[in-house]
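User: hey, got a sec? need UDP-N-acetylmuramyl-tripeptide synthetase folded
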Amino acid sequence: MYAEELLSVIPLKKVIGQLPNNIKDISIDSRSVQPKSLFICIKGYTVDGHDFAQKAVDAGATIVVSEKELQLEGNVAQVIVPDTDRTLGLLAAKFFEYPSNDITMIGVTGTNGKTSVAGIIHHMLVGMGEKSALSGTIGFNLNGVLYESANTTSDALNTQQMIFRAKMEGCRAMVMEVSSHGLALGRLAGVDYDIAVFTNLTHDHLDFHGTMEEYGNAKGLLFSQLGQDFTKNKFAVLNADDPWSEKYARLTSYPIWTYGLKNEANFRAENCNYEDGITTFDMITPEGKFPVTMKLLGEFNVYNILAATAVFYGKGFPMDAILEQIEDLNPVRGRMEKVLTDLPIQIYIDYAHTPDAIEKAIEAALPYKKPGKKLIFLVGTGGNRDKSKRPAMAKKASKADYVVLTTDDPRFEEYDSITGDLAKGMLHDNYACIGDRAEAVRHAVAVAEPGDIIIFAGKGHEDYQIIGNTKYPHSDADIAIKAGELKFVK
Ligand SMILES: CC(=O)N[C@H]1[C@@H](OP(=O)(O)OP(=O)(O)OC[C@H]2O[C@@H](n3ccc(=O)[nH]c3=O)[C@H](O)[C@@H]2O)O[C@H](CO)[C@@H](O)[C@@H]1O[C@H](C)C(=O)N[C@@H](C)C(=O)N[C@H](CCC(=O)O)C(=O)O
Ligand SMILES: Nc1ncnc2c1ncn2[C@@H]1O[C@H](COP(=O)(O)OP(=O)(O)OP(=O)(O)O)[C@@H](O)[C@H]1O
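Assistant: Yep! Here you go:
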């Protein structure tokens, strides 16, 4: 792209030196700079991108965009702007030619259920023959190929690049998990959403947002980001049982579809029944009542399915096609996913790491508990992140008969500090604190008797543990199966 054309989107700038004619790439990371590219210096939490500008030039950057004049050696022009974060969004969207305008963009936000709802929508789209891309905690899924990503919602550059790749690969839609960090930090700048979905808002991430009010306001940005272009068929899907939905409805002028189990809503469920690994319920829709049978477990998944149904109905799909897809769905990876084993115990892998998700995961498993048998719940939490939620997590975990308190990614925090905070919330004494997660998993299996259920929460799809700065391989399922075979298989 012509450098002058690219830079035309930045209204306030000072150019030092001779601009090159063309720019072949944009980068925010000196370690992946290509020749003839534009490097933008982003001030991070740990380091400042301005300190890597010379490295970027050495790697071939011919324009550096920064917030101050830098002493750079080499064939490079500098563009000084007041705010590189804001500039990044403008440049990235321009460089990739506003790809979100050309495909249906579906954003899913909320404390819990983003991965589940986004995954469900994506799989239903694919099942209906629509090419769709998916981005979120599990990575970037482009036509079945999964690319890793560091964040649930990637930085503004990577976001535009993913949408561009989806468009170039012929996707008609892209489903994105939208985190509150992503919204608050402008990672979604320039994304033209068509459909915005809200799951729920409960305690999480207060280390970053400070208060629930701020956290809720950050999520609201998704709904205002729908914009005001009434020539487009846009809409929002809101959870009628969550009080934040009323506020979000006021943030957009587009039509609203609501769903829920308790309050009046366009899509509701009645007569929910959970038996033998199958969930059944009656779905009440604007077109009447339909019986639903699905393999997804728990009431929270009934909410997730109602949200997905509202998305498809709002897009104009007929109810029979929607229901056919729901019956075919498999559990989302690592979300109340049953581990298939010959062991005489039931093992579930789950990603619950908030008080509300823990409560929902335990409630989902209780209907499968046999009289006189135990529900064992292993729960961990991350080090150096929101500590205020820890006692509340253990309080909810107390609903299980036996609880193992451990870590998920301890990072730089001592095991005892994490499990000690969790233990403050326990409501009964049937629990153990074991910071080493592998040992904790083995302990959960050791206390299990035939017929018991164990839920390993907090790691879900992840196959690693971050200790210090290092990612170590870790799989709750593999460790549990090995321990179970030693204990139960003669
Ligand atoms: C606290 C936080 O949000 N950090 C994010 C931030 O990292 P950072 O500020 O530390 O960035 P940095 O590493 O200091 O780098 C600053 C700049 O220098 C550049 N750099 C750095 C090193 C170098 O050699 N050369 C170089 O050019 C970097 O590319 C970057 O442009 O920018 C990175 C790139 O965009 C993110 O990956 C990183 O997310 C970290 C991994 C993270 O854990 N974030 C969490 C808090 C988060 O965002 N979570 C949400 C919610 C998840 C949920 O719902 O549960 C999410 O969306 O993931
Ligand atoms: N609608 C829901 N309401 C409450 N809890 C839910 C809901 N859907 C899933 N959960 C629970 O929350 C856990 C995390 O679900 P999911 O990964 O879909 O949420 P998320 O919002 O993507 O979380 P994260 O951003 O941390 O990945 C699940 O393993 C399940 O226990």
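Quick note: Residues 337-488 form a domain with the Protein-Tyrosine Phosphatase; Chain A fold (CATH 3.90.190.20). Let me know if you need anything else on UDP-N-acetylmuramyl-tripeptide synthetase.
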